[in-house]
Amino acid sequence: MALTGIPGTTETHVRRRRVYHIGGYDPAPPSAVFERFTRELRRFERAWGTHASTTELEVSGDLASWQVSASGSNWRTEIEMRLVRWDDVIVGSGVQPTWRRLVPAVIAFCDFLVAGAFTAYLRSSWRYALFFLYPILILALAGSVSAAAAAFILNSTGSYFAAILTLFISLYATLYAADRLLYLNILIEDWIFSHRYVRKGDSILNDRLQRIAEEIARNAPADQADEILIIGHSLGAVLAIDLIDRAMKIQLDQSGNTRRLAFFSVGASTLKIGLHRAASGFRAAIGRVSSNLDVLWVDYRARSDVMNFFGAEMLRDLKLRPASSPLVRNVSIRRMIAPGRYPRIRKNWYKMHCQFVRGNDRRAPYDYFMTACGPLPAECIARSERGAMDYFDTEGQLIDSGDFACDLKGGTARK
């Protein structure tokens, strides 16, 4: 589909885009995600000198959707945001107090150890390997503090009843504090889900991704969107790969042709699942998506995010044959956030990880909202080391980039 030219420039821009967003392991309902999106959209407006508005949220069983209109002085883009839901799956899997999840958590961690995942994490990204140990170390520390408190009471009073009572009270208090301050519970639930997903899959997610893939394939021939962009954040990138693999196969089976898709995996946990010995089916899906010339796959990583595999060679580490994608882009979260706000955020690993899907205070090579709501094709943003920064003046006007050209359909870009 041809893109529309900008008056006064030699560039083309996206007038209509459909975005499928798959978030990470987060039980937040669609209403909370939508509220967060609209709040962070204001940062996008301030940073890039744009104007943006949204419609009301519409929620179905598979998707939550809303429309976005974004514009500058010489461009306008209409965006259909589609949030792929799995908050209900997360809640349905049983988000419970930490102490009730200790046994399945230990089983999950031991499974990833025995299946060789942890050893592979060490080889691929030592930072992620340390993050893997993070919940275990917190649990060990909580147990040690509680045991020390119980031993102190026993030595002081000689009462086994008081010591046991102290043990349980102290353990409950430390686990509660660790959950509130260090996100322990969500981390444990994440690993329990990952263990189950690798070993058994999830029937609800399986059916849901199949229906959405069929929707993408069914609409592809007559789709009016200039660009279809799929964004997978954290563990959501795993689901996004599954979705894309299904959609491209359905398109090929139906017509023998495929509609080009853009896929941005951001702060992705792809290797978390892929390096598990039992994840052979998922590794095969990665191989198919990475070698598919009709998929533009870009993987954004940040050194300061401990939850992504910074520095890893994905296909090599998974023992898959080399391919042209994913295109890896290393970005700086520090450059995205205002200097006065960064010192507070950098101490919180969860907020650093979530910055991949938040609004930027400053213009930077990676910007979630510019990617999802801006006028430039994903190909242009991905191929440029400076992202969209060379395409806008200080007032938010799209400017002529001179020697840069990109073709959404052909997949070529140069600078």
What would your notes on this structure say?
This protein is α/β, with parallel strands linked by helices and 415 residues long. It has a single domain (4-89, 197-414), classed as Rossmann fold (3-Layer(aba) Sandwich). Helices cover 47% and strands 17% of the residues. It has helices spanning 30-48, 87-92, 102-114, 117-124, 126-157, 160-182, 184-199, 203-219, 236-255, 270-274, 280-291, 314-317, 342-345, 349-354, 368-373, 378-383, and strands spanning 4-5, 12-13, 16-22, 51-54, 58-59, 63-72, 75-84, 227-233, 261-266, 295-302, 327-331, 405-407, 412-414. The longest helix is centred in the middle third of the chain and has 32 residues, at 126-157. The protein is globular. Residues 5-11 and 407-415 have low confidence and may be disordered.
Show the helix and strand layout.
Blueprint: E1 4-5, E2 12-13, E3 16-22, H1 30-48, E4 51-54, E5 58-59, E6 63-72, E7 75-84, H2 87-92, H3 102-114, H4 117-124, H5 126-157, H6 160-182, H7 184-199, H8 203-219, E8 227-233, H9 236-255, E9 261-266, H10 270-274, H11 280-291, E10 295-302, H12 314-317, E11 327-331, H13 342-345, H14 349-354, H15 368-373, H16 378-383, E12 405-407, E13 412-414
Parallel strand pairs: 3-7, 3-8, 8-9, 9-10, 10-11
Antiparallel strand pairs: 1-2, 4-6, 5-6, 6-7, 12-13
